[in-house]
Every structure is written in C-alpha cells, then in structure tokens.
User: Which sequence fits this backbone?
C-alpha cells in the first residue's frame, strides 16, 4: 500500500481495510460502530477518494528517496508504545477498570432510566448527548467548509447539463430505479430502529444520502439537483443542527438542564423517548444533507475542471 | 436562565452559526453574528463575576451528574480565559465586515461568519467543559472551522497552508485521543476532576507516562510549540486578516489553557516530573522558541508573517512560565496569555486595516502610512510597544512577572533571555515603524481606515494601556486561577 | 502475550499510518495514511471495550455480561469526526490541484519558492 504508485489500487485497498475493520468491530460486539465504519470506511471515504482521483490523476510521481528520519521516529514510537500497551489491562478482562466505574451504571441502569434496550444509543443520545450535538456540528462545519472551498460560497444551480457517471449502463439504471426506493425506505427504518437494534440518525443519514448519490450517478447531477436543489440542502444542513440545539433549549424553558429530556413529558422515561427521537431526527437530517451536499460539491468541482481542459 | 449561563456561553455561538447560514445575506449574517458575539461577551462577564463572588460553577449537561454525564465547569481559570476569547471575538467580528469587503468576494462573506462562529464556539467549548472527551469534539469543531477559514485566503498558498495545518492538527487531535484512551482504560472515567482523583497511586506508571506524552504532544501541535510550530507562520499569514486576528489572539491560548489543565490539574505537576523532568524540557523548548522565532521574524518581508513568527516566540514565554513550576511562573504564563491575546488582536486588526486600504501587508506597503493612516498606525504602535514590553503597557506587566518568577527560581539566564527577546522584538517592530513613519509614500493617496475597523483596533490598543496601568483584573484573575490550580493538588 | 495481541497490531497500524503521512510526498497518499492512523485508534478503543464472554450492549433476555458501551459511543463520534476531516482535506486537495497543477508536495513547494 505504501509502495504502490497506482493510487486507484491504494484507494481500493483502503476500502477493503475499512470493511475489514468493520467486520472486526462486529467480532468485538460493537455492532453500531461496525455499521458506521462500513458505511464510512468502505463507502463514503473511497467514494470521495475516487471522485478526487478522477481529477488529480491516478498515478503518483516517481520517487526514489527513502526517508530515514520519519522511519527512525516511527521505530522509536513503536518501541515506546509496545512498552506502554503491555501495561494495559489484558484484552477482554472482565475486571478491567474501564468496565467498572462509569460504564457499570450505563449497563445496569440505562434500560430503566432511558427505557430503551440499546445502551449505545442511550449513552450517545442522552448521557453524552452533548458530544453528539458536537458531532453533528462537526459534520455541519465540514459541509460548510467543503462548499465554500469548492464552490466559493453560495451554491448556484448549474446551467450546463452534466452527464451522469454511469448513464450509459441501461441495466444499472433499471436496477437502480428499483433499488433507490428500497434504500430510502431502509434509511427510514434504520432511523427509527436505533433505539432497539444497531442504527440511529447517523447511519440512517448516510444510507439516505447513498440513495440520492446513487440517483445522481445513474441519472446525472443536474437531474439529481432538480430533485434536491443545493439551496434546499443548505437549508436542511442548518435545520438538523437547529432541531438538535432547540431540543436542548426547550429543556431549559421547561426547567431542566440543557438536553435533559426527562422534563419533556410528565413521565421521565417518556420524556427521554421523545427527546431521543427528536435529536436523532436532527442528526439524520444534517448527516444526510451534508453528505449529499459534499458529494455534489465534489462532483461539480471535478466536472468544471474537465470542462476547463476541453 | 441565570443558572444556565455556563452552557449558554457555548450554545449561543454554536446555534448562531446555522442560523447565519440560513440568513444567507452577508449583511444580515454579519449583524446576527455581532449580536451573538456581544451576547456571548455579556455572558462571559457575568460568569467571571459569578465565579469571583461564589466560586466554581458546575453544570450537569442533560441532567446527568458527573462522571456519568458531561460536566461543564467554570472556575477561576476557565472564566479568565473565556473573558479573553470573548473580548477578542467581539472586537474582531465588529471590524470583520469592513475588512472582508476589501478582501473576499461577497458570496464568501456569510460562510466566513458561519465558520467564525463555529470556531469561536469550539474554542469556548474546550475551555468550558470538564470532560476530557468532550474537549476532543469541540477541538475538532474549532479546528475544522479554522482549516476552512485559512483556506479562504486570497492567495493559492492559503490552500496548501490549510492542508498542512489540517494534517498537523489532525495528528495532534488523534494523539490527544490516544492519550485519553490510555487514561480511560486506567481509570474508567472521562471526567477530568474524577480522573485527577483516581490517577495517583496507580501502578501502571509506564502507561501513565505514555498517556501524558500523547496528550502533551497532541496539544503542543495545536499550541505550535517549538519544534512543532511549522504550520503556524504559513497559516496565519495566508488566512483572511480578521481570521488571523482572532486565531492569533485565541486559538493558541486555548491550547495552552488545555495544557495547563492537563498538566496541573489532571495529571499533577509533581507526579509528571517524577516520571520525567518535563518542566526543564519546557524551559529549554521555550527558550529556543523565543530566540529562533524572534530572529526569524527580523528577516521577514511580510508584516503578517513577522507577527506570526513573533507569536511562536511569545508561546515560548508562555511555556517558560509553565515550566518554571512555581506559583509566580504560572501566574506569569496566565497573565501573558491574557495580555498577549490583547496585543496580537490589536496588531493584526491594524494589519487588517492596512490590507483593507492598501491591499497588501508587505513591508513596502507600509511606506508613509504614519501620515496617511495616523489612527491605524497609532493603534499599531501601542500594540507594538506592548509586545516589546515597555512599562505602562500590558506586555510589561506579564514580562515583569516572568522575570520575578525566574529570579525566584534563581534562573538568571532566563532573566537575560527575556531581556534579549524584548530587544529583538524592538528590532523587528522598529523596521515596520521606520518604513511607516520615515519613508515617503509614492503612488496613489491612501485614506484612513474605516471607522468600523478603527473602533475595535483602538478598543484593543486602549485595553493594552489600561491593563498596563490598572492590573487589578488581570493580576487578580490570574492569582485566583493559580490559587485554584495549585490548591487543588498541593 | 496473547492477551496483548490486539494492542500490538494497533501499534503497528498506528506507526505505519503515521509513517505514510510523514514520508509520502503525494497529498492524496498522505490522507490515506492519516486514515489508517485514525482507524488504528478506533480499533484500539473498541478493543478495550471487549469483555470476554460478553455480548453486544443491547439488552437481551438471558445475557449476563455485556461489552462496555462507552468506548463504542466515543468511537462512533470519532468516526464521524474522521470522515468530516477527510472530506475537508480532499476538497483542499482538489483546489490545490487546480491552483498548482500538481498534488506532489515538492512540486508545490518549488512553485511557491519561485514566485
């Protein structure tokens, strides 16, 4: 991977790496993480990489030098790290300190306190809900950043009709037409199933975005933008964050702390339910629209470059 | 609402950002951003007074008490730093509209405000939180916003500067994440105060040392501590001027804040130094940074770059204060953190005013500006005097404390170093002053900067004079913070 | 040693990723290295969460022992942060290619020096 000069091969390998990591996470009982890593490491990341490669070229320049300083630093670092991790609690140890203190409460009490079986969702959306708000803001920041870097600020709808990446494949188009509604439906399922099984706003948002991206690949960017215009996407990206943040503010009004959903209903557990559904909706909206926005911006940027060359 | 001020401090700019994006019109977005920043400034003043009167504030987000939930904790140290960031942010956002009009095409204005608010909110989040992982999330919010802000610069070099900053920043944040992972697997908690209680007495000292090393190296990349400072001069000289003014005055300061929190409160200075003489290492790195960066600043032809390199040198002073390890040294570091924030805000806003009227910030662009833009250059000279550390300016106060702290430790070479550093600063500042006041301007006439830039510039310049004379707020605030830090673990 | 097998692999992935970032001159390849580096940290966290004999932290009847949900939550957040950073970085690479005509570090530095 380090040696290969064909960047296409490296990107493919890193996609496989993402998929392998995801399967490893399944083995480690981390279903939610595996789901996300599969969508990101083997989905979004290689997709963006490939889009970029169409523009920057597939092969990298010839290079001869071996860099000894970084190599030396890495060897030292690896040695120090080996020494350090040998003092970690043994892998899988039941009595490791990290399983005892804070985690114990999540495992024992969260089903009663939050009322949902998926502890990961409980911690993510309620106990550490503020981290998740921050995470949504990170995605929002990236979307704003990518759009301003690639499109120079205000996204305008393009005049030229851009051709679809895979427009000539009839079979793909027919299969895609059948698949896309199913993908979107599956996205909705994941969105609202996150409390019971693996899933939730982020994964649902990515799946939803993939459905729209697939549409854009099969039927052309301009067609896709007719379905979801950039202006609307920009609005939706902001809306998701605002939904999440407003749930927090609503809690202040009814007398609780920020993001304390218990006050949203007379029964605290019901309140938690309502709060989590609302914030997951915010997450889903921002993630889906941010991913689509980022993909559109990348495609537009690579296209306009091709046109310049012609 | 008064009991929720701690969280509103961060939530106000955080939610103002998406609102700004929806507003879309540049002017509306600017006015709204100004409103949010002024509101936030008000909150920070209220918090500062509240902490001074009745001690630290703890706020349980989501109603889950720490360590199960995320805690916001405003104490003497964080309220002091929050006050600085808010002062600078308010000054910068007020002048931003005039400066952007000259520097960026109109469609990029409202994204600038969005990113500015995000960066602002992220930095405040790092300071306000008492949770080690929450720090990482807000660190990344502010970092991503910063990369995008740098990339907005006019020159194509801004893109490469942003890319390099992104690589260094991401490695830094990931290092921090690894360190926190080690600490978590040792203690089972992410809450900083809880961690501080559980860490002493652990047997796994190698792992603690590794955790500390990763956390510190991670933060040092963000802090631009020598020799990890390479990204800073490029990023600061390429970003839009007002973005530089804000970042130079706040981003590295927040990194230092985080470092002080980790070093003094979570891990404990004595415990760390028992493993490895970190304090001495900081003294050494700080001293090298002061000398090398100041010398490099002399050779620059771009004024933005001069001040950017001077920032690297000033970070050296800050780290020396921390490395001394006594109460006076820490107080000097905190004082300089505050005062240097004001200094760099004044200097970079002045540069922004020059870029706004002249179109560039090369040394020759400053020719004759002493006469053409007397108010701008007057403000800049006050900032520069404070940078050198002339008596009756804020910069003098913090350097005075640093000298006192060095004498208390009996480290006379450091006293000499501070004087040499000030002398070199005098030298590179003089080059600018000479060009501005003693060389004639040729070419088209230049008019004074717009009022909306002069106001924040002079607010910062006068703050430099004010805090040089009436030191009750800064010295008092930093003393409280030091007592809190040193008292929390004797 | 078998108890630490996971962590040793993590360390190897970590330094490999970092080496690519530091030693490679191609801006795209640096990002691939950064991705490997970040993913190695994810693997590290998830490894610490595993409890032998435990199941995924979703309540089911009859399960006594669950793996630790907290590191999993943290890594969910970190993965999202990671892809956000990557998309921003790739956007920068696209613009750099357009502005400099190259994504090789030395070519770019050379061009900056000459102007």
Assistant:
């Amino acid at each position: 991977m380090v040696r290969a000069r064909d960047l296409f091969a490296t990107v493919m390998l890193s996609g496989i790496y993402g998929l392998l990591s995801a399967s490893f996470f399944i083995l480690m009982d981390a279903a939610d993480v595996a789901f996300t890593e599969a969508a990101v490491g083997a989905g979004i990341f290689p997709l963006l990489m490939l889009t970029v490669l169409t523009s920057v070229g597939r092969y990298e320049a010839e290079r001869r030098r071996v860099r000894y300083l970084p190599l030396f630093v890495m060897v030292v670092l690896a040695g120090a790290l080996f020494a350090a991790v040998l003092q970690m609690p043994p892998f899988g140890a039941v009595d490791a300190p990290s399983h005892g203190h804070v985690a114990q409460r999540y495992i024992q009490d969260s089903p009663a306190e939050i009322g949902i079986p998926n502890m990961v969702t409980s911690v993510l959306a309620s106990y550490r809900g503020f981290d998740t708000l921050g995470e949504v803001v990170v995605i929002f920041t990236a979307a704003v950043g990518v759009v301003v870097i690639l499109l120079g600020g205000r996204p305008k709808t393009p005049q030229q009709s851009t051709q679809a990446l895979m427009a000539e494949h009839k079979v793909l188009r027919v299969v895609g037409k059948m698949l896309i509604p199913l993908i979107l439906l599956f996205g909705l399922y994941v969105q609202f199933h996150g409390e019971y099984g693996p899933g939730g706003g982020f994964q649902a948002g990515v799946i939803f975005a993939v459905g729209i991206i697939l549409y854009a690949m099969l039927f052309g960017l301009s067609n896709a933008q007719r379905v979801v215009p950039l202006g609307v996407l920009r609005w939706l990206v902001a809306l998701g964050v605002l939904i999440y943040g407003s749930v927090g503010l609503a809690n202040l009004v009814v007398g609780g702390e920020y993001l304390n959903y218990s006050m949203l209903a007379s029964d605290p557990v019901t309140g938690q339910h309502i709060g989590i559904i609302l914030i997951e909706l915010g997450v889903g909206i921002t993630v889906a629209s941010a991913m689509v926005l980022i993909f559109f911006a990348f495609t537009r940027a690579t296209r306009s470059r091709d046109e310049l060359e012609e | 609402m008064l009991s929720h001020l701690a969280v509103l401090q961060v939530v106000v700019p955080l939610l103002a950002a998406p609102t700004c994006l929806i507003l879309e019109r540049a002017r509306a977005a600017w006015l709204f951003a100004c409103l949010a920043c002024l509101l936030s400034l008000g909150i920070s003043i209220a918090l500062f007074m509240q902490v001074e009167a009745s001690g630290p504030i703890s706020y349980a987000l989501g109603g889950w008490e720490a360590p199960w939930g995320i805690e916001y904790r405003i104490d003497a140290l964080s309220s002091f730093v929050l006050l600085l960031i808010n002062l600078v942010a308010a000054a910068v956002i007020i002048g931003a509209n005039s400066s952007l009009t000259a520097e960026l095409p109109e469609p990029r204005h409202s994204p600038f405000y969005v990113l500015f608010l995000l960066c602002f909110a992220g930095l405040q989040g790092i300071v306000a939180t008492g949770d080690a992982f929450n720090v990482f999330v807000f660190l990344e919010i502010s970092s991503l916003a910063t990369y995008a802000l740098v990339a907005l610069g006019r020159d194509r070099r801004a893109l490469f500067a942003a890319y390099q900053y992104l690589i260094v920043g991401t490695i830094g944040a990931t290092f921090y994440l690894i360190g926190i992972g080690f600490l978590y697997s040792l203690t089972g908690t992410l809450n900083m105060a809880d961690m501080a209680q559980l860490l002493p007495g652990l047997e796994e000292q190698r792992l603690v040392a590794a955790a500390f090393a990763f956390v510190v190296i991670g933060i040092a990349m963000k802090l631009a501590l020598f020799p990890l400072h390479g990204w800073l001069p490029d990023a600061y000289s390429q970003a839009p001027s007002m973005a530089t003014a804000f970042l130079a005055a706040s981003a590295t300061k927040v990194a230092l804040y985080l470092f002080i929190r980790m070093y003094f409160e979570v891990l404990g200075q004595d415990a760390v130094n028992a493993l490895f003489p970190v304090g001495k290492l900081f003294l050494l790195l700080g001293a090298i940074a002061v000398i090398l960066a100041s010398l490099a600043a002399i050779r620059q032809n771009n004024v933005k770059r001069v001040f950017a390199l001077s920032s690297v040198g000033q970070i050296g002073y800050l780290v020396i204060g921390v490395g001394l390890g006594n109460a006076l040294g820490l107080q000097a570091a905190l004082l300089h953190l505050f005062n240097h924030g004001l200094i760099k805000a004044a200097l970079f806003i002045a540069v922004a005013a020059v870029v706004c009227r002249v179109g560039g910030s090369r040394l020759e662009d400053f020719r004759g500006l002493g006469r053409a833009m007397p108010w701008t250059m007057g403000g800049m000279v006050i900032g520069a005097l404070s940078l050198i550390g002339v008596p009756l300016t804020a910069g003098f106060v913090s350097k005075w404390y640093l000298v006192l702290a060095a004498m208390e430790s009996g480290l006379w070479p450091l006293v000499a170093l501070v004087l040499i550093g000030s002398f070199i600063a005098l030298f590179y500042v003089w080059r600018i002053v000479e060009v501005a006041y003693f060389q004639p301007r040729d070419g088209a006439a230049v008019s004074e900067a717009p009022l909306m830039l002069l106001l924040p510039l002079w607010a910062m310049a006068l703050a430099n004079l004010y805090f040089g004379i009436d030191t009750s707020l800064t010295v008092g605030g930093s003393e409280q913070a030091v007592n809190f830090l040193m008292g929390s673990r004797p | 040693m078998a108890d630490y097998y996971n962590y040793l692999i993590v360390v190897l992935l970590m330094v490999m990723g970092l080496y690519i970032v530091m030693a490679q001159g191609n801006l795209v390849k640096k990002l691939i290295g950064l991705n490997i580096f970040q993913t190695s940290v994810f693997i590290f966290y998830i490894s610490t969460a595993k409890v032998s004999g435990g199941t995924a932290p979703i309540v089911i009847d009859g399960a006594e022992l669950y793996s630790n949900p907290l590191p999993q939550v943290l890594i969910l957040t970190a993965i999202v942060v990671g892809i956000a950073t990557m998309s921003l970085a790739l956007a920068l690479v696209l613009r750099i290619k357009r502005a400099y005509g190259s994504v090789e570090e030395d070519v770019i530095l050379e061009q900056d020096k000459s102007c």
About this structure: The CA atoms of residues 34 and 80 of chain C lie 15 Å apart. Chain C touches chain B through 30 residues (CB under 8 Å). Chain C has four helices and no strands. Residues 2-52+66-114 of chain C form a domain with the Helix Hairpins fold (CATH 1.10.287.3510).
